[in-house]
């Protein structure tokens, strides 16, 4: 396919997403099935155009003066890819599969993309209804923070230290140009190429041998801050597919015990293969046997550390999942907050005296973060929150002096693309004092 034909295809996919309110991956898959002549490079390039357009949907519509799929796509070529009006006009020839030529109005707007008077929700590309929450999170750096969350994300991996070390892994992947991550001690980072796509790491022999896991650097950092150590009895209460379980096992050097579970058995299912591939030997998976089953009943009051990698809106991962930002609704936020309270209450039962809960979200909203911790402390007077200064002391050297990472109500730490070059992650630790 020509670059112009890919633009037309991306406009078609954006129209489908809008008309049928579909998740972007589903719409892209359908397009691929209906256009089997398109090769994998074409499909990847179209996906990248669609994701760039979704990342900048509000600002692209603003500079173009309208929100049609074509306008958003054209606007995003300027905002996300730095193309100028002449380059875009050269792609929009109207010939064969190319988009129609630019109108005079489109050409004028593309030549002068001005966001200086745009409201914060437009300049920062986020839904209006979240303005208050996000202002509470970021104060006068709101627009800068949100623009960083609307940029493309690199791909990070975590070296599986049960099998190798970063200095040995990096040369094996040298053909893909990884750089050591700035903060996480065992991470490597791959930049996205010109088209916004990173390397397909899952097909490398090193991945298949379990030498690394794909995991954002922020996720790597927060899981290491909750104070896990070899020999501990640990519960990973929201283990899902096991991303953090694998990191816990590595940090514990395969000693002690991790009990991994999740309310959703389908999400938990892939964990078994991942544990095997990674050479993990200290994890017991506890799969619930139907609704209402408590597979951890025998562990009440016995656990040193319960990791709560809580269900959340995922706003901190908007760089990677830009369509979710336009689909998240206030009702979903309310639901997630209820689940967060429930899962924290469940964790409280498991912790022994002097033991801890590590509460993690990939959100930047204080209502999912500090406010949930504060509400938990109200409900559970036997717990205290660990001073975030102590968490910083455990952090890699590059972060240990970063008081600016302390969350707005001072109960935890907040990472973000602007602050730490990672996804947006929150982390707080609660200790059982009696
Ligand atoms: C952020 S995801 C976990 C991701 C996972 N830890 C990883 O690193 O790949 C949150 C998980 O919480 C689970 N969950 C929601 N409510 C729960 C509950 N009450 N108890 C246990 N798990 C719950 C969801 O099914 C979901 O898999």
UniProtKB/TrEMBL annotation:
Keywords: Methyltransferase, RNA-binding, S-adenosyl-L-methionine, Transferase
Highest taxon of the lineage: Bacteria
Residues reported in the UniProt entry to bind S-adenosyl-L-methionine: 262, 309
InterPro entries listed in its UniProt record: MeTrfase_RsmB-F_NOP2_cat, MeTrfase_RsmB-F_NOP2_dom, RCMT, RsmB-like_ferredoxin, SAM-dependent_MTases_sf
Keyword S-adenosyl-L-methionine part of the UniProt annotation: yes
Single GO molecular function: RNA methyltransferase activity
Family: Belongs to the class I-like SAM-binding methyltransferase superfamily. RsmB/NOP family.
Pfam families according to UniProt: Methyltr_RsmB-F, RsmF-B_ferredox
GO biological process: RNA methylation
Cited SUPFAM superfamilies: S-adenosyl-L-methionine-dependent methyltransferases
Protein name according to UniProt: 16S rRNA (Cytosine967-C5)-methyltransferase
Active site: 362
UniProt key word Transferase: yes
Span of domain SAM-dependent MTase RsmB/NOP-type: 145-433
